[in-house]
Every structure is written in C-alpha cells, then in structure tokens.
C-alpha cells in the first residue's frame, strides 16, 4: 500500500492539470441553415484517466480516454450581424422629352437667326445647343 500513495497523488495532479492544457486546442463547429440564425459551438478534447486498483492476483492499471467537452467560445459571436440594405442613388431622370423639344426650338432659332450660307451651320448647331439646354431644363 505505501507504493499506491505516490501513484494516486500523480493521478490527481495529472487529472487536475490536464483540462487546463486543452484550452488552446479548442475546435469550433458552426451550425447554420439558409434563412435562419447561425450558431457556433466550441469543443475541446479532454484527456481523462482512472486508476483501477488491483488485487493480490491481478495488478492495478490506469484506464485512459478522451472526451469531447463543450466550452464557451472565446471572441466568437453566436449570431451573424444582420446585413442592412443600402439605398443606392440612381439617377432615373430621363431628359429625352426636353432634348427633343429643345433641339427643335434650337434648330428653329438657329434657322431664324442665320443668313444665307450660315444656315447649313446654324440649324445643326442650334439643334445641338437646344438639346443640351432642353435636357438641363427637363431635370437631367
């Protein structure tokens, strides 16, 4: 029996210190389902020993195994933050009507103000300038 005390003492010390050693080897498992919440569970493998005392005919032995133990996750959120939809500014103003009206008025004004050979230049320039001004007036 005197030899049994050191064995039991080492088993108690080993069993007490082994769980704290496994903290660095924690493993996370994420469970999710599309459209629903997502959870993360963290586990670690914990080493266990148990001394089975012997008898006079059969010596004692140590039985060992590992258990998967759930622990609190460090710095890992349990839920995904909800994604907010951002409104995008889209310029859906159409200045087609203003361009057409402005182009016609500009072409007419260019034809009225130009003389002789200048009408070949005055009408297209007036139409282009009127289209730009008409688009700006229409809100584009």
Q: Hey, roughly how much beta strand do the residues contain?
A: 15-25%
- The number of domains: 2
> Can you list the strand order of the major beta sheet?
1-2-3
Please give the share of residues in helix: 40-55%
Runs in which pLDDT lies below 50 for 5 or more consecutive residues are: 15-23
Q: Main sheet, how many strands, which sense, barrel?
A: 3 strands, antiparallel
**Number of DSSP E strands:** 3
Average of per-residue pLDDT values: 75
First-last Cα distance: 99 Å
What's the tally of helices? 3
Give a structural overview.
This protein has 140 residues and is of the alpha+beta class. The chain is 40% helix and 23% strand. The protein folds into two domains: 4-71, no CATH class; 96-138, no CATH class. The protein contains three helices and three strands. It has a three-stranded antiparallel beta sheet with strand order 1-2-3, covered by helices on one side. Helix 2 (96-113) runs antiparallel to helix 3. The radius of gyration is 43 Å and the shape is rod-shaped.
Quick take:
The protein is 40% helix and 23% strand.
Secondary structure elements and pairings:
Elements: H1 4-21, E1 27-32, E2 38-52, E3 61-71, H2 96-113, H3 119-138
Antiparallel strand pairs: 1-2, 2-3
Helix pairs in contact: 2-3
